[in-house]
Design brief:
- The protein is an alpha/beta fold.
- It has one domain: Rossmann fold, CATH 3.40.50.
- It contains ten helices and twelve strands.
- The strands form four sheets. A six-stranded parallel β-sheet has the order 2-1-3-4-5-10, sandwiched between helices.
- Strand 1, helix 1 and strand 2 form a beta-alpha-beta unit.
- Helix 6 crosses helix 8.
- It is globular, with a radius of gyration of 19 Å.
- The termini are far apart.
Length: 319
């Protein structure tokens, strides 16, 4: 699909990943990228104040935007603490956004729907590396199961609608993302921005120690946000199959090694203490990314240390 002449609706387009994706689309010559926002947004009238969990509001959005392609990035997200505190909200809001947006897209006649899922949809004991065919082989890790299951329902809906209605919807599963512009609120942030903020604040305050959740034994895979945006753009152009696709870098690092690396890059030299009363979450996360490479030629480009440097620099300049 040549996206340059399409009217493209990007939910969450003003957010972390969305801002990078909109730039990717602009670089491809796309002239009609539409970003709905909850509040008045200069430059995008009348795309404002749409409630994406309400059917009639989503219907109005499609009427106003007249999209040919929808890329659904909007989500209620957070780290382990936020998932544990708000499992009901994370389930309901994410489920209803997906259900309403896909149903109304089908009803409106959208040519292609790109559903952005999550690595949290995988079963708690998925073999390493995570392969897409394993996504239904068990229940997700408990700390983020409501969120992971709500997002995975878009895969069910996409495949069901393709089978019954011939609706072209694809489903992508990004790994943990990071980069400039991330959420650094300690109550809701993911691991990398949380650690960066803690290290910077500990250094500024000349603290002798810093407390981190868990044991440090869990491992994670991370993908730089600009790479993630490129993957989504490529899939939007080139991928049209019902099978889910992992979006990742293929790397893996323990949380303990990650904290040491960030502390070293920030220059915090104090003691790192681990709060074992807090959960580690899923013990390992590492993706098989061969399907993305084979189907639409995606391979991560940004080196992890370089990505961390850019993220730290952004935080120091903006927070």
């Amino acid at each position: 699909m040549n996206l340059s002449d399409k009217r493209i609706l990007v939910t969450g387009g003003s957010g972390f990943v969305g801002s990078f994706l909109c730039k990717k689309l602009a670089d491809r010559g796309c002239q009609h990228v539409l970003v709905p926002r909850r509040s008045v947004a200069s430059g995008f009238p009348p795309f404002r104040k749409y409630n994406l969990i309400d059917s009639s509001s989503v219907k109005n959005l499609y009427r106003d935007a007249r999209p040919q392609v929808v890329i659904h990035l909007a989500a209620v997200v957070g780290g382990i603490g936020a998932n544990r505190a708000h499992p009901g909200r994370f389930f309901y809001d994410n489920l209803m956004m997906g259900v309403q947006l896909i149903e109304r897209a089908r009803d409106y006649g959208v040519e292609k729907f790109v559903a952005i899922g999550t690595i949290c949809s995988y079963p708690a004991n998925t073999p390493i590396p995570f392969r897409e065919d394993d996504v239904w082989n068990g229940y997700p890790e408990a700390t983020n199961a409501p969120y992971g299951l709500a997002k995975k329902m878009m895969l069910v809906q996409s495949q069901a609608y393709r089978q019954e209605y011939g609706f072209n919807s694809i489903f992508l599963m990004p790994v943990n993302l990071y980069g400039p512009g991330d959420n650094f609120d300690l109550e809701t942030s993911h691991v990398i921005p949380a650690i960066i903020r803690k290290c910077v604040e500990a250094k500024r305050n000349k603290s002798s120690e810093m407390v981190v959740w868990g044991t440090g034994a869990a491992s994670r895979e991370f993908l730089y946000v600009d790479d993630a945006a490129e993957a989504i753009a490529l899939a939007s152009e080139l991928y049209d199959k019902p099978d889910p696709v992992n979006i990742g870098s293929g790397m893996e690092i323990t949380v303990k090694a990650l904290v040491s690396l960030i502390a070293d890059m920030v220059g915090f030299q104090g003691e790192i203490k681990w709060d074992n009363s807090k959960p580690d979450g899923q013990m390992r996360r590492n993706l098989d990314t061969s399907r993305a490479l084979a189907e639409f030629g995606f391979k991560a480009k940004v080196d992890f240390r370089e990505g961390l440097k850019r993220t730290i620099d952004w935080y120091l300049q903006n927070c």
